[in-house]
């Protein structure tokens, strides 16, 4: 497993944990999305209560070279509020489904956050100076009596305590009938897509009153519905290319140059089902919960309930690699169906782009139950299971690999399948774009791990 | 929800899976954020799979009972069956172990579309039964016991299969012209020449509850599947309960104009079911009103209320043929 020492093996250490300590989880605090910005300096989380919390990494202290900067709260704001659709008598949840950062163009930061129906562009800006010494106004804003003004005074900016302000700059609403599951910013940095169960829309970041529908899989007769869109993403380099995954386990690659409505895919990625694995729940576990392009754009990764698959964009008929995340759950699908865990949507992520290029190490990460998360090294084909837990986690302590005992005699330090806590699930993970720093979200806590620096 | 570290028990009983699935669909209507289309679609697949297995088990059981009770009953006329409709791909049934032959029979049955879905699992049951549904549908009567008649000879291609069972569609066409679906499947054992009628009741009731041609008084109270251990006899004349349920006499043809289902009989079964599953009974009538409209009923509560005019439409052969299999699965009860 990773961490066995030598070479480029990473030794993961606990760094920080954010969030409430007590076991009683307030529903609003459940983390629903985690995303680093393009530099990795900022880390955003969204929760079920509609809030966004942004953490900022401290500047590296030259004297403390043994660890990278810590992440501290930078900004907190209420992104979405619960709404009520009176026409359909439906409540619209405020839960933040996805956050995506825009690349930084000026001093301010911009991100897109979305709930089930509405996408918002937020500007996060700093204010650390304020003007003082107005000629005609008092400090509190009241106008001075003109007769008391005898000299000309030019206001000057003086430092103040840092204030981080978040303001909604655009609201993209009323374009989705079904629940939005994905947003993805195009490599042109001008447009982005939003995907719901049946449709994908293309937006311009500046224009809120219209969007283009580019995929529509709604059948004429809803009773003929057989699949829904589960995730969508733009290609990292080709601004005309995007992919979307379906509940049937397929991925379609579309080229927007081909036609205005991309209902006909350019490529269809699908692996034939293994008939020996057929069960009542085959359709559920083949549903793809996340799709992510590699940084090069040559590969993409998909996550279904039990596995992670790496696809080469040039090969449609099967993935190039398949990694079993928790195959021991295959015999438990019935119980997982009963308790709804089988519907959990796990995400996956690639390691940072710089690492991929420089050191040619390509690792993928995804979550599991019992607060375990897994990493798969594509080069060495080794994998590791780690746990996000407050116990036994002192800063700079190397995480101990975990192992689940599927059957038979349980070895020391192994955990049997029946002991796994299915209420403790890691659905959202993120990898710093440049460093070996990862953010792992348990139900209501955010863990940050770093590799051990020597 | 699974609490912490409770030991995981796994029940693969098709019937409880169906019941769990329906409960999930029902409770999703009251969850915050509206109906989750994705989750309900996945649940409907489980429903379909469980239902197919359940029906195939029932038919296997039926066949076993036929072996034990060779005395036959009066012959029932075989009404005309619709020509094979385009097979919805979803009808590819859950394959039962080891039998690739079953697939062909299944797709054959699937090709008949519409209300003949009952035949799908039937094909998957004992291999001897495979060939039966693949014969072309043709009107006619299959006479029992004896020599002459198209049925006596074994109904064409099936004759070479002893002990064969001949399954025929139960899609009646009312004399009024508007076809509607029947819930019955009539089985002729080509070996013993015993004719059996299997009453399912639910599909018919669901789609015909408002259909004027069906004279069906009972509002979609489904005939529940027999709980394991319940003795249910399927052949005419043997069970008081069944007799009232049979529609029409032999040769009676379509249901239109025939005697309606005896509602008290259905209720008797319903009560028997509800005694075992008390919490489900209150949900079932709600569910029927949803499912009577197919999937659209799930998406919009308002649509379910305005469903009545659609039910007649649902009864049409074309509508049935175009229903996705998962919709049929939802209509299971």
Automatic annotation (TrEMBL), chain A:
GO cellular component, one term: protein phosphatase type 2A complex
Record flagged with keyword Repeat: yes
PROSITE patterns assigned to the protein according to its UniProt record, in alphabetical order: PR55_1 (PS01024), PR55_2 (PS01025)
Name used for this protein in its record: Serine/threonine-protein phosphatase 2A 55 kDa regulatory subunit B
Keyword Repeat among UniProt keywords: yes
Transmembrane segments: none
Family statement drawn from the similarity comment of this UniProt entry: Belongs to the phosphatase 2A regulatory subunit B family.
Keywords: Repeat, WD repeat
SMART domains: WD40
GO terms for MF: protein phosphatase regulator activity
InterPro entries in the record: PP2A_PR55 (IPR000009), PP2A_PR55_CS (IPR018067), WD40/YVTN_repeat-like_dom_sf (IPR015943), WD40_repeat_dom_sf (IPR036322), WD40_rpt (IPR001680)
Organism of derivation: Grus americana (Whooping crane)
